[in-house]
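Sample intake sheet
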Amino acid sequence: MAKLDTLDEIKERILCVERDMGYMKDSIEFAHAELRELKEEADKSKRSNELNGQKLRELKESNRLLQQSKAEPVSTLHIDFVTFNTNLRNVCLGKHYTGANDDIELRQAFLIKLRPEIGKVLMIRDAKYSSRSEISEAVNRFEQSFPSFPLLSADYVDPFREDKAMLRPKSCYNCNQPSHFKRNCPALYNPGTNQERKQTFCGNTTSQTEVCLQWKQRAVPRCLFPN
């Protein structure tokens, strides 16, 4: 039979067990604290991913709408393009452009955002430019050489249109009167009326025969010259 422990030994063992239980309690509390921190970090990472996803969707939409308009200078487009790429790098942490291939892709992406009449010309010369700044300077020179025309309203009529004569009312080539054509001219069936009828060309009253002779002799109508 084992010898019974003394009272002091029993107390010492009880104290050891209590200390061990205290260590276990501290370990459990520490483990719980670590779990809470991990859970908070996971929730924070989830919220960050959702926020980044929302920002990415917004950046995609802004990238779709990013296009040089007719009245927008290239300097404004270049600033917007740089701002877009900066925001993209902030959202996509650890992903940035460093190599030559990435720079080529950035230059091509910038060229696509230009007006078609400018981008197509510079796309052929893309290999000559080493940065977006050089492309921006080239576009600036192009815009200064070929300024964009102002936007015209829908009811604007170009005075130099070749078909502007179509807007004038039709008239008879025989008597120069509206409302009928030469084949239906009443003067063809009334020779006396045809000879008495006078026509006005370039401010001068002449007969049809005289007008034809004058037209053959002069290549330019007299109305173009000052009196």
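Comment: The longest helix spans residues 7-65. The chain has a mean pLDDT of 67.
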